[in-house]
Design goal:
This protein has 485 residues and is of the alpha+beta class. It contains 17 helices and 18 strands. The chain has helices at 3-29, 38-48, 57-76, 86-102, 107-131, 136-140, 164-173, 179-186, 191-202, 206-220, 285-292, 299-304, 324-328, 385-392, 398-407, 415-428, 472-480; strands spanning 155-156, 159-160, 222-223, 233-237, 242-247, 250-259, 267-277, 281-282, 307-311, 316-317, 332-336, 347-350, 359-360, 374-376, 380-382, 438-450, 454-456, 463-465.
Length: 485
């Protein structure tokens, strides 16, 4: 750009800025963009007044560079650059330069349109990259209803949502010379996101590309207390039907069984704080109503499943003397005795959550051989409960470990344990050993129940693709359609 051209552009922009501001105010007044509140743009320009993108030859050149970068970046993440008005803005920048050369009387209209559209595109792009283009709290917690017609919360992970000040701060930042560096800094730098993005550039399979785009979006959600940043954690992924217990020097992998489609396992973050051995199962009221109550009066059914009916005052009720309506009333609880045959198996891992779900052993290990293992009422059954116990309780002495083995009918490995078992059986016959009831974890172990259909396998680091078992991808794809090619 020659000095005379710069002078002409500077002079023309200055002469038309007041008329451009009037035109911009009209555009702001008519703005109905649902992605970004029009009030934030309006407030910024009312408070500051100054244009950002077309107030000098330098700013116009910066605008051209910026929108080209947004266009290139949007395509790299699998989005349609038209969503960010890239071609329209570039066309207007070219038009403005020509209008300035031709001394056009409508320069101010083009100036206003560039300022308006580029601010919208800029905010839409960086807000989406920083916070995510979708809100999972709104998307996933309006899918399933319970028996009372209320929506069941399926996504119970605390995330940071867009703050009102974000747009104002971002527009102020746009005035600086390092605005491109600022935009780059807002894109997730999480290794998982970067691995998925890298795969997207080379994978041409349509189904794979769709999963990569959706799981990159999951990586944008700003999860508070993100467990994958911890050195040690338990990672449960519903689509892969796997659990990984991860620490710096090792990865323990195992299969899981999780919630069925109509009793989905909720997505959550918590910390395992207690391991119990030979737990009793307090049957949830939802299961009592759907499955157990129809067997009221059938003593053989309750005996076969080792269920006890207990009144609120603690008295045990004879199954032959109770009706289905009474069981559904909520005045009784039903528990299953601990030990072999218990639905929870021999070990349970508890962590605070509002769904009363947990990780646990199972009395049906054959289910782990099934390809589809979405079969539970919401809890997660784990294939290797003893190994997981050792993961969350790493500092136990050998005798304590053997006491756990003895308590859950695993052969002891120390001489002390073997002698103890031999002496016990000599005195008590085949009675079960119950040497340990529970142990607290210290420190507590983060647990993350997540939903990724494309993810680097924690054991191999290879990106793998898994089925959309709860159709969450289907919901996300529909919501992301406005952004897609």
């Amino acid at each position: 750009m020659t000095s005379s051209n710069e002078d002409l552009i500077a002079q023309t922009l200055a002469e038309n800025i007041d008329s451009a501001k009037v035109s911009l105010n009209q555009l702001l007044l008519n703005n109905n963009d649902s992605f970004l509140s029009s009030s934030e743009l309006k407030d910024y320009y009312q408070d500051n007044g100054d244009f950002i993108w077309v107030n000098s030859p330098e700013s116009l050149e910066k605008s051209d560079t910026l929108i080209k970068y947004i266009g290139k970046s949007s395509e790299e993440i699998g989005f349609n650059k038209k969503v960010f008005l890239v071609d329209s803005i570039l066309s207007d920048i070219s038009r403005l330069n020509q209008q300035i050369t031709d001394s056009s009387s409508v320069v101010y209209e083009t100036m206003a349109r560039i300022e308006f559209n580029l601010s919208r595109a800029y905010l839409k792009f960086i807000s989406g990259q920083y916070y995510g283009f979708l809100n999972p709290l709104r998307l996933f917690n309006k899918l399933d209803k319970d028996n009372n017609g209320a929506y069941r919360p399926l996504f119970d992970i605390s995330i940071q949502l867009p703050e009102k000040e974000f747009a104002t701060n971002a527009l102020s930042k746009a005035n600086s010379d390092d605005v491109l560096e600022y935009i780059m800094s807002l894109e997730p730098q999480d290794p998982i996101y970067l691995a998925l993005k890298k795969e997207l550039q080379k994978d041409s399979i349509k189904e794979h590309r769709q999963k990569l785009i959706l799981n990159m979006e999951r990586c944008r959600w700003k999860i508070k207390d993100y467990p994958l940043n911890e050195k040690k954690y338990v990672f449960v992924n519903i689509p892969s039907q796997n659990l990984w217990a991860i620490q710096p020097d090792s990865v323990l992998s195992m299969k899981i069984c999780c919630g069925a489609f109509h009793t989905k396992t909720p997505l959550l973050i918590s910390k395992i704080n207690l391991v119990q051995f030979n737990p009793e199962w307090g049957i949830p009221m939802s299961i009592i109503k759907k499955e157990v109550s129809e067997h009221a009066g059938d003593s053989a059914y309750f005996a076969r499943h080792r269920y006890s009916i207990i009144q609120n005052d603690g008295d045990t009720i004879n199954p032959a003397e109770i009706t289905s309506a009474e069981l559904r009333s909520g005045n009784y609880r039903i528990s299953q005795k601990s030990g072999p045959g218990n639905s929870l198996g021999r070990i349970i891992f508890r962590f605070p959550n509002k769904f009363d779900v947990y990780l646990h052993d199972t009395n049906n290990p054959g289910a782990f051989q099934n390809e589809r293992r979405t079969i539970s009422h919401g809890c997660v059954r784990v294939q290797k409960p003893f190994q997981l116990t050792m993961f969350v309780l790493p500092d136990l002495d050998e005798w304590t470990i053997d006491k756990i083995r003895l308590s859950v009918d695993i052969k002891p490995e120390t001489d002390k344990g073997k002698n103890y078992l031999q002496n016990f059986r000599h005195k008590n016959g085949a009675k079960p050993l119950r040497l340990i009831n529970s142990l607290r974890t210290n420190p507590e172990t983060p647990v993350y129940i997540a939903y990724y259909t494309a993810f680097p396998n924690p054991s191999t680091h290879d990106i793998e693709f898994w089925p959309d078992r709860y159709e969450y991808d289907k919901q996300m794809w529909q919501a992301l359609k406005p952004f897609l090619p």
